[in-house]
Amino acid sequence: MKFRLAHVLFALVLAGECMHAQSHKPIRIITAAHAGDVLGIFISESDSLVASCGLDGTVKLWRLPEMTLLCAGSGHSSMVNNVSFSGDDRHIASASNDRTIRIWSANGCTQEQLLSGHQGDVLCVYFSQTDTGRFVVSGSTDRTVKMWDWQTGAELKTFRGHTGAVTGVAFSYNDSLIASCGDDMQVLVWSPTSPSPAITLSGPPHTAPCTTVLFSFDSRTLASADREGFIKIWSIPQGQLLRTLDAHDGYVTDLTFAGNNTTLLSAGHDGFIRMWDVATGSLLDSVNLGVPIWSIDVTSNGSTIVAGCSDGSIRIWSRNSPINTQSQRKR
């Protein structure tokens, strides 16, 4: 998840193709993917589908690798900030400034459920990634994190601890923990069964509003990012700060794990996607898309990175070498 357009808006247009600094394949550009900024990108577990959302208030579903548009959902009455696939790839959750979360079928983009209860813009949403995929977690400008049973529409729990807008949420892969981050510069880790934080993070905190947070696939690492370009890597469940990366010039908008938890990808408003070694903090690879990026995700083998950009485009970076055949994405 992510620092949203409600806070800051860029409008840059890039013509033509961008080449990777190490002569990888040209960046493929899907122009006018949305009528306005593409704020959310999420790739299905099967690597066959991409969900996107944007300033135009729609949720769209695309087929990989062709990037053929399959369907669009248009039930929200305001911009859609974030999307997430369920662990079984059958459902898509979306978060909007209309204060709702909507659940869509991945077969036709028909609306299946409306979740209403936040008292502010819903900035982020995340499906539980187990096969049952029954739970959804969300964060809002009302300073709360909420957990839902999307099948019944029931609000199960409200987590209070942030003093500013909640800009990022994530389940651990085994659904035993929930992480959240916010404008208050806090990163909090919750148990789904308790209203109080379950883990205390130790180490120098973020010194700028946080933008996104994400667990690794094995749930042993937590990554968080902020508006000043820094990424912090935390050990779970110990809560210790392992390292801080000076990653981007300004806002870090999204994170995704790959390479069997050994590689972290980041995106920023500086137009770069960067690839990091989690263990050492070393920069492994990068590409400049030339336009501010809102969201990224990566296929299972790490060979294809899909980015949602501020000019309404979706851009695809195809790397010559996969990261790892056991890589894990936003899960």
Task: Offer a quick outline of the entry.
This protein is mainly β and 331 residues long. It contains no helices and 28 strands. The N and C termini lie close together (12 Å).
* Low confidence ranges: 1-23
Strand content: over 45%
Taking the sheet with the most strands, its summary is: 4 strands, antiparallel
Structural class: mainly beta
CATH topology term: Methylamine Dehydrogenase, Chain H
What's the arrangement of strands in the largest beta sheet?
A: 1-28-27-26
Mind telling me the CATH class? Mainly Beta
| Number of E strands | 28
CATH superfamily label: YVTN repeat-like/Quinoprotein amine dehydrogenase
Q: Please state the CA-atom Rg, rounded to the nearest Å.
A: 17 Å
Q: Between the first and last Cα atoms, what is the distance in angstroms?
A: 12 Å
Helix content: under 10%
Keywords:
331 residues; Methylamine Dehydrogenase, Chain H; globular; four-stranded antiparallel beta sheet; disordered N terminus; mainly beta
